[in-house]
Design a protein that fits this description.
Elements (H helix, E strand, L loop, with lengths): L1 H27 L5 H7 L8 H35 L2 H28 L6 H28 L1
Helix pairs in contact: 1-3, 1-5, 3-4, 4-5
C-alpha cells in the first residue's frame, strides 16, 4: 500500500514539475516559442514591436498561471504526503485541470488553425496522469477503509 502512495505522489509530482517548467519558459523567455513563429509565419524580429509587447504579456500571464497552479498543487501534495486524505488528491486534480484544459484547448486551437505544432500532447498526457493518480488514490482510500 505504501508503493501505491509513492506512485500517487510521483505521478502528481511529475505534473507539478512540468508545470514549473512551463511557468519558467513562459515567464522568462525574451521572445515567443518556435511554434508561435510557425503559426504566424514570421520570426520574432519581423513581428511589430507593439505586438511583441502584447505577446510577451500574454506569455507572462500564462506563465504566472502555471506558477500559481504549480505552487498550489505542491502545497496540496505536501499535505497529502503527511495526512493521506483523499480530498487532497481531488483538489490537486481539479487545480491541475483548471489550467490544463484551457492549455489543451488553446494548443489544439493553434494546431487546427495553423501549421504550428504546439505542445498539445504534453497537456493531454498531464490530464491523463492526473486522472490516473486520482483513480489510484480512490483505490488506495477504499483499501484503507477496508483495512480499518
Amino acid at each position: 500500500m505504501k508503493t501505491l502512495k509513492t506512485l500517487i505522489i510521483l505521478l502528481n509530482g511529475l505534473v507539478i514539475v512540468l508545470g514549473y517548467i512551463f511557468a519558467a519558459m513562459y515567464l522568462f523567455r525574451p521572445e515567443f516559442m518556435s511554434y508561435h513563429s510557425v503559426a504566424v509565419h514570421q520570426t520574432w524580429s519581423q513581428v511589430d514591436t507593439q505586438i511583441q509587447v502584447l505577446i510577451l504579456a500574454l506569455m507572462r500571464v500564462s506563465g504566472g498561471g502555471w506558477l500559481g497552479v504549480s505552487v498550489a498543487m505542491s502545497i496540496l501534495l505536501g499535505r497529502y504526503y503527511r495526512t493521506e486524505r483523499f480530498w487532497l488528491i481531488v483538489a490537486i486534480f481539479f487545480t491541475g485541470i483548471a489550467i490544463l484544459l484551457p492549455t489543451l484547448y488553446a494548443t489544439l486551437f493553434v494546431k487546427s488553425h495553423s501549421e504550428a505544432n504546439p505542445p498539445w500532447i504534453a497537456a493531454l498526457v498531464a490530464v491523463a496522469i492526473l486522472l490516473i493518480a486520482l483513480v489510484l488514490s480512490k483505490i488506495r482510500s477504499n483499501l484503507m477503509k477496508r483495512k480499518a
